[in-house]
Specification:
alpha/beta, TIM Barrel, eight-stranded parallel barrel, 8 strands, globular, disordered C terminus
Length: 232
Amino acid sequence: MSAFLASVRSVEEAKIALEYADIIDLKEPNNGALGALPLDTIEAIVRFVDGRKLVSATVGDLPMRPEVMVRAVEATAATGVDIVKVGFFEAEIACINALRPLMQRHLKLVAVLFADANSDLECIPQLAEAGFYGVMLDTLHKQGQGLCDCMSFVQLERFLVQARAHQLMTGVAGSLRAENIELLSTLNADYLGFRGALCEQHQRKNQLETSKVAHIRSLLQKYHANTALLTA
């Protein structure tokens, strides 16, 4: 079963997600696709979760400059999160190489690639060789098409197969909706990430709504059970 990643921006939202999600992901939706929360907010959420679930955090929509990315990753990792997510908005081998020493210190970094932008989806071998913990697909533009509108099932499957072949943790996100779960559950990504589908009026900048978080959890369980029956 794919794990359930829920993106939150406050301790109050983390309290809702904690009951249902497997990964508590920290981001500020008002600041872009991978908007970063203030470091003190990240630290407060980490203290609240207190090891009960994995916590990941984004470093922001950063320019592809190695020194900027290294500083942001170091600062975010110092808050105590389990995983740091770094967006690659274009192919930039210099940035991948600049982060290599941090991963040699056993920091867990997940590279975020964007299906609707200029991300190089063929950089998986370089990410694995550098020591990245995982790679995920997302969407950059949050007003319009979601991931399942941008990529076919075959393209998604190819991405996941390649990532698994390089022993990378795999994630799928990008304006995912409840109706996408049945299809995505058959791909067996390590986790599916949600924000807008969990919020009031399905708007990612609104607050999390407990009933919507619970609904996504129930669908993940339902379609996992159906997939298991089909493959038994």
